[in-house]
């Protein structure tokens, strides 16, 4: 399946000095290898310093804007991000969608800007609790992918990373069961395969996110279609993050 990835999403946590310390501790505790990519999505203000601090840990941003410059107060462009030493970003985290109103249409513009700039990204998708309770999670996630991602060419699609993060599992301590995770991950892979063919579907890394921790990571990562994790709370301490990497 896709290449293995373990990525921390620090969200709006930690100060700069704590961030520097965490990067050093993570790098002291894991040995990077060709099989697993390890990343941290950090507050954008910290990117420059942390990219200088890190050697093998990949530093990314949690958000960016699709325009290249201009009157967009408070936003950052891909060029500004790469100029500070980060070469990957998240697109469409559920907190960006629900708190900041980002729509599938806006996310499509971000996807296009990223592809045009050869900027790598993890596209986040996932259903809220009420959608799962109504049994509509597959339709919901498929629509997120159709409306923001599935217009890409096969060549661009094979470079994409996807994170499935059921909203009801984020920060709640409630993890998707391995069955729920595997069902959605294999559904996502089959939709990619329908549109782009099996080889491309197999090359896309599909990460799971939502209350992933050192206790449940190995079980989740053992699922056939789970290629790694996007980790929130448990990425803020080197010991728990490194245990997840080792899982
Ligand atoms: P938690 O691991 O804290 O549930 O957060 C998951 C997440 O949102 C990662 O992007």
Q: What's the topology here?
A:
Elements: E1 4-9, H1 16-29, E2 36-42, H2 47-53, E3 58-61, H3 78-83, E4 88-91, H4 94-100, H5 104-116, E5 120-125, H6 129-133, H7 137-148, H8 154-157, E6 161-164, H9 178-196, H10 198-203, E7 205-209, H11 217-221, E8 228-231, H12 238-246
Parallel strand pairs: 1-2, 1-8, 2-3, 4-5, 5-6, 6-7, 7-8
Describe this structure in words.
With 247 residues, the protein is an alpha/beta fold. 43% of the residues lie in helices and 16% in strands. It has a single domain, classed as Alpha-Beta Barrel (TIM Barrel). Helix 2 links the parallel strand 2 (36-42) and strand 3 (58-61). The chain is globular and about 45 Å long.
Summary keywords:
247 residues, alpha/beta, TIM Barrel, 8-stranded parallel sheet, 8 strands, globular, binds 1,3-dihydroxyacetonephosphate
Gist of the model:
This protein is of the alpha/beta class and 247 residues long. Helices cover 43% and strands 16% of the residues.
In the residues, how many domains can be counted?
Answer: 1
CATH architecture: Alpha-Beta Barrel
**Radius of gyration, whole Å:** 17 Å
Number of strands: 8
Briefly note the CATH topology name: TIM Barrel
